Amino acid sequence: MSPRLKAVALLPFQNVPEAVKELRRAVTELGMSGAFAPAVGLRLPLGHPEFHPIYAEAERLGLDGGVTRHRARAAVLRGEQASTSSSRSTRSRIRWPR
Question: Which residue of 26, 43, 62, 85 could cross-link 9, Cys pair, CB 3.0 to 4.6 Å?
Answer without folding.
Answer: 26
